Structures are given as C-alpha cells and as structure tokens.
Amino acid sequence: MRWRGRRQSSNVQDKRGMRAPRMARLGAGAGGLVRLLPMVFRVLGFKGTLIALAVLVGYAYFTGNLQQFLGGGGFESSQTGTPDQPVTQSAAEKELVEFVSTVLADTEDSWNGLFKQAGGNYQEPKLVLFREAVSTACGIGSAQVGPFYCPGDRKVYIDLSFFDELKNRLGAPGDFAQAYVIAHEIGHHVQTLMGVSQKVQRAKQSLSKVEANRLSVKQELQADCFAGIWAHDARRSRQILESGDIEEGLAAASAIGDDRLQKQARGYVTPDSFTHGTSSQRVAWFRKGLAEGTLAACDTFAADKL
Which end of the chain is more exposed for a tag (fewer CB within 10 A), N or C? Predict the structure, then answer.
C-alpha cells in the first residue's frame, strides 16, 4: 500500500498506557437470599414463599438487576491508569500506529464521500488502541477476541498484537491484510449509522440460536462487502493500492473464515455455530464490494445465496 506520507486520522485514542481492566466483586446477591429462605418458608409457607420469590425475580428482571440477583455477587469493571501515561513502544509498533491512523483516515475519506453522495452525513468513529483488555460501552473487551467494534460507544478497538497473529498464526501477512481488518470493523460502524445493527439485534431476540447465528453471518458478510467498497474507492480515487494488495486482503478474509478457524482449533466444523461466514463466503463478499463499489451490491440480507 502507498500509505506513507498520507493524512493520519485525529480519531485515534491511545489507551495502551492504561492498565488492563480488572473485575471487582459486588455484593452478596442471591447468596444472602438463600440463607434467608428457611426463615421465609416458616413464616409464609410453601405457597407464600413461591409467590415472594416470583415477585423478587420479576422485580430484578424488569429493573435490570437479574444477573446480580441470580449470580450471588455479579461483577463490575474498573480500569486504573491514565490515558496520558507514557507508552513504551518499539520503532516497529510506532510505525504500525501510524499505519493504522493512516488507514482510518482513508476510510474516513471514502465514507464521507459515499454518504455525501447518498445525501447523508458520515459520523466518523473513534479507533481505540489498547493492550490485553479494555473497558467499553459493550463491556470488557479482550485482545483474545481480536479487533472489534462496539455499537454502544461507536468505537473500533484494536490490540496491535493481533496483526502479528494475523501474519504468523493465520498466515495472512501484508499491510493490506491489516487494512482489510480495519476496514471490516469500520463496516460495522457504517451498519450502525444505517440502522442495520439495531435491526439485527432486535430480530435476534425472537430467533433460535441457530437462526440468530445465520443472521450474524449475514451482518458480518455485509461488513466484508463494505470493506470491499472502501478498497474500491481507495484504488479508484486515491490510487493507494499496489500490486499484490488485493491478494493480501483476500488471504486475510479467507484466513478468518469460521470453517477454517474451527478446523484449526478442533479438527472439525459445526456450520450451525458459524457467526461470521466461511472462508469462501468472506472472500466472495469482499470481492463483490471491491468490484461494484456500491451499498446496493452489499445487501447480504436479501441475497438468495451467501
């Protein structure tokens, strides 16, 4: 990629100098209630105790405290350290930060233009760099899950160590492979702005686990297609792609297919548990966005075949 010397985004938040979040115990929760049950039973009797429990559980459910009520002491997250704490980094990591910031800026250029063409305004997301774990509006995010997007705070989260894993363990080296990963997460932000993420989340509430997984696959494949749209625009408008870049992106899409990851991890695959799509599906939808460069081309939800 021809990325050096280009604009870097001002939307990068560096939290690598903060300590990883820790989990702190809350109160006694249901444990205290269990100890009181014998006394409650003696006073209210069997039927009265059941009614009392039903009322308490109903109250906990509708006030959002059910997990704490049932868990015997839920958890809350806390994060120590300060955002401006000095960050120790190698020269290679410093260059990688510059690369990530440049790719983010390029996605901003693409999506600002595409939203403007459609008569809308693109709201640029923040990209958060962290190490090991980070507090988000979606809960504690771990580096073990790889880069992710949180619709609750509209931020992309990346532990830079993932790019070493992408290269060494998953076999997808190259700067454009890394750019594809970033563009995919930005694709989820675009889905949030379009209302797609919200619709999917609502629909999942009335679906079985298998059906919800299938819906997740469609959402993920659309994000792959949106990554292809960015690549299409970056190649056409700014000529930043070089020979071999597309192949790197396709290799990355293939490397993180559900079937390939499951096969590597346990030796067999379970299609009903797929949430992101197979390697061939991810490659196909990235290619489709790259070739056509339009939002209409990325309607995975209406596609007869993924």
Answer: C
